[in-house]
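Example complex used in Figure S2.
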Amino acid sequence: MFLLAIFIAVPSFIAAAGRSDLYYTLTAVALLSIASAGVWLTFYIGRINIGQGAFALIGAYVSAILVTKVGMSFWLSLPLSGLFAAGVAIVIGVPILRLRGVYFAMISLVLTQVVTLTALALPVTNGAKGITSIPLPGGVSILGLTLIPDFATLENPRLAFYYAACVLMVLTFGAMYRLVNSRLGHLCRSMQQNEELASSIGVNISYIRVIVFAISSFLGGIGGAMFGSIAQSVYPSSFQVADSVNFMLNCFLGGLGYVFGPMLGTLVLYFGWDLLFELGRFQLLAYSSLLIILMLFLPNGLLSLRLPGKKGADK
Amino acid sequence: MEQILANGIYLGAQYAMIALGLTLIFALMNVLNFAHGQMYVLGGFVTYTFYGQLGWPFVLALLASCITLAVLGALIERFLFAPVIRRSSREESTMLLAAGLAFLFDAIILLVFGEKQRGVPKIVDGVFNWDFRLIMPYDRILICILAILSIVSFILFMQYSKTGRALRALAQDRTAAQLMGVNVARYSMIGFALGAMLAGLVGGLLVTITGVNLGMGGPTSIKAFMMVMIGGAGVISGAIAGGIILGFLEAIGLAVLSQYGDITYLLIFVSLMIFLAIRPQGLMGKPWG
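Predicted assembly (604 residues):
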């Protein structure tokens, strides 16, 4: 039902309305929601993660460097950038995941700043000039069968990106749903409630939280890499502290108790921002007021509106 | 060397004041106030309006900054934070509210004051010059002394006044304070107002030296978070220590590493992460805040 909606109904609606710029917006929503899903996962083990921008930036840079300097295919660099981000997350995560609550929130915020500054300082990232004119993703064919066409030859690369991002998003959320309902998911829930208790009944908490953080960063890296490829450029300012905060807001807004919360939150926040563009200089004012009002009346997220029905389906 | 030390004291005193407000709000309500930097900018703009535009005496303008921010802080606590804390099932929801507030303040400042850099005329002219070993404009010295005075009076207020005692009790144990007859709702409001007032006061002090512009809010918040992390969240002495340490690190880094470009902050961030890995609760914090 939902798949049908995003793969057939939305493109035909856009074709009918003639607003092909919406593709870009929707693609961005899909990608940002992948990164937000990662943030949501760290919330799931009871950590407030404001560092997703760091991993998105790492992912974007790894993919950009692999494509431009090594000449690798984008589709190969995409998982590699995710894995690289996950590797960084494991190295950093082992010490900082010992922190809790506000301390973890603050250190992850600092992490975003560190990555931005590192990107400015390292020679391979080309400093403030960034990496520009990244080629569009090429084609992939196995035994002469074209699986993914060359994006540069398509007459509408936007549509192609839209499909690619949506496929990624569906895969991500499918995996998340499986994860949450798996053994690991149950262990995470026990950690969210009480880490000491979980560890006392034999849950290896330090192992699980590093794994979860790595998965979360993997998603951030993939989202960032895809974003870099669409924009065809990466700068140290591509993902900043504000983006990290936005990833967190997406999760809050959608509701922390629901797997699909980050998706809805991203959609509402990103679209809300775009719709308010008409207001010109009052855009930020209206946006932030709406955010505050939403928080006042629905502090547990948008999805809490249909709490009773959802709860029955989840359990 | 003397120059670096003097710069360190000067920066440290300002930073300590910013961190104090943040840590006070955190200790009382468990709220990480993302909007702290924006409150600071707002304080700067109020002083700019009264002192720079309307020609009031500097002290009065500073007072106006304090009062504006204190009233604003009280209103925000009463009508935004208190209801959300009551209704939300997770206390982290207040972070979303605080981030929303940060955006809101940015929007208001943009609409009311514009995006330009604003400065005010100097309050004192002249430069203190000790044999070219230590050069410091008089207004910086004055601001530094004023900042230290405010910190001292804040500590005295927290130690000896009735309100201060109630606030400290609240920070220590909310339920126990309530059982001892402290009006929790009222003192939460006062505490938040006090924290916001401190932000406004620093903003008003610093507008005379660095000026003020819209973009200063976010970076200031991050710096304040760092200071609070160094010293330990929710501890007043920790906030002061964190502010002074960061001030010195910055002064030394800028002097020693200037030829390598902008890596001072990178180094500070990295060493902060290593420090926190070894001592997660900061210098003086309670474990697990």
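Residues 22-137+147-314 of chain A form a domain with the ABC transporter involved in vitamin B12 uptake, BtuC fold (CATH 1.10.3470). Chain A touches chain B at residues 48, 92, 95-96, 98-103, 105-107, 109-111, 113-114, 117-118, 120-121, 241-242, 245, 248-249, 252-253, 256, 281-282, 284-285, 287-289, 291-292, 295-296, 299-300 (CB under 8 Å).
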